[in-house]
């Protein structure tokens, strides 16, 4: 009798405390995700449920056999992710190491570098669109420096690097804060002992700092990889995937397919492939860097 009463009390507490969260999670995440599998096998415009026609694997065959734009967007996104993640984390770590030094303007600089992360992606994109098209052009006219005279959003190569510049500018400050927190927790006596033994700055970085802050590197790589792979707002506000579709990210390709072309079933199928790709890449990255943490 007592065991039954305890069992009921335990389940009652779990239902009271976890029930609402589980209900909302099921309604908002699990059910729409499950419906996504159904709609990925339909021809639907996303508006009228009665017009969702079951087509089986037609959408998937179209993606793998004839949708060249999707795979071009995939290659663009992979290239953008690899370059942006590398530059962002290198720059963020450099800024963190710099601002760990006793500078008079240390707090001000930390605030200045972190502020771009506060600005929303769409707003940030339109600000940088003005800078690329008007600001850089004016500076180029005054100075004659070729860098500022480039058509930053007018060609595939400059459009790509324009997206990289804005993404790095927005993200590196946030990663810098994480690296600063990790560096602040490193043992000072270990660093001082290495300096007494004659360790150079590059040796301190490779042999001591990086192994000790590997958990922070894991977090920063995960955040930058997932954010770069899911980049949409900057793509929409800066280039709209142009010129043509040369700078179209996967997220923007899915948006255009579902909400611009009104092919919601095909867009849903692409979204599921997108989810699978992001999951595989991020899980692999975390697994690799976690192994480095153990070995360190």
Quick gist of this model?
It is built from 13 helices and 2 strands, in the order H-E-E-H-H-H-H-H-H-H-H-H-H-H-H.
Structure characterization notes:
The chain is 77% helix and 1% strand. It has 296 residues and is mainly alpha-helical. The protein has a single domain (62-295), classed as Orthogonal Bundle (MetI-like fold), CATH 1.10.3720. It has a two-stranded antiparallel sheet with strand order 1-2. The longest helix has 38 residues, at 2-39. The protein is globular, with a radius of gyration of 24 Å. The mean pLDDT is 85.
Spatial gap, N to C terminus: 53 Å
Following the backbone from N to C, one meets helices and strands in this order, namely HEEHHHHHHHHHHHH
Domain module tally:
1
Spatial arrangement of strands, main beta sheet: 1-2
What is the helix content?
over 70%
> Based on CA inertia axes, which overall geometry fits?
globular
Class inferred from helices and paired strands? mainly alpha
Q: Provide the residue-averaged pLDDT.
A: 85
- Weakly predicted, low-confidence segments: none
Radius of gyration using CA atoms only: 24 Å
* CATH homologous superfamily heading: MetI-like
**Number of helix segments?**
13
CATH architecture assignment name: Orthogonal Bundle
- Quick one: CATH class? Mainly Alpha
